[in-house]
Request: fold
Amino acid sequence: MKNWIGRLLGGAEKETVVPAAVGAALTGEDSQAMATEVHATYYRWLTASSRCAASPEQEAQILDEVRSLAADPVCASGLVPRIPELISQLLTALSDENISTGALSAQVGRDLVLVAEVIREANSAYYRPVTPIETLEGAVTMLGLNGLRMLLARIAFRPLLRVTTQGVARKVAPVVWKHAERCAFAASVMAPGLSAGVFESYLAGLMHNLGLQVAFQVADRVCEGKVPGSGEFGIAFFAVSRELSAVIASHWDFPPDVVKAIAQAHEPEGSHPAQALALGDRIATLRLLLDAGVIGDDDPLVMQGLNGFERRCLGKLLELSD
Reply:
């Protein structure tokens, strides 16, 4: 786990595109209140079929148990799967800036499932090829090194958010993963305008939900197949889950900027990578709520909570394939 992260970041291309001014349309307490409402709404929707009227003691027990896991990184990191070996080998190859398209294609071609993923990505609405791409080499050319790195990072992280146990954690897992993908993309788009690393922000977006899946297993056990239903609990639940994600990221030797971004994402004075992640998180959350019909395009959470550039990013998330 530790080695492939270092190789991946060491080979990342320099990003030179800087977007228009980035920043929430609201500032100060109003912005914080808007962000809180977004995440409370998301929690209530995410857990709609599994909520219960938990007692204050049960809520406190869940939060305390998640904090206890965050204090034991060895135990916490052992609760999630590991990265597939083939992905690690491919990321090693991608750290070589001079590697040829043919050599990359040969590496990817060792796994038919991965071949299908790469070709599918190259034909997605995000890349918009003039004609359909049917060959692996053509797909690798379309994605480029950085696009292939991001795709492989998504593939590497996907099994980390899969849940083998039954219950609430398993039920919400597909949505939690979809949110992580969209958060990673949005955070990477926000990063240049905040002087944050693009790929580090992308990794932080993928990683920040990892603790949430573990936390849902804890809540499921305490509440016997349910989770507390209040939005207020949801905000605290997300916060301790991010603490757990940051602890696991640190234990796996993620770069300090990534760990700090996850830990500080919703602090008013967070680092620049933390601000990029917080914006990416909010945009991704709004995208899911819009797609589910929970809110509309003219909702104040969108119109007042995001500026023009952020709303364009929100629209761009529609082009990401599931």
In short: Residues 82-161 form one domain. Residues 187 and 276 are 5 Å apart (CA to CA). The first strand starts at residue 51 and ends at 52. The two ends are 25 Å apart (CA to CA).
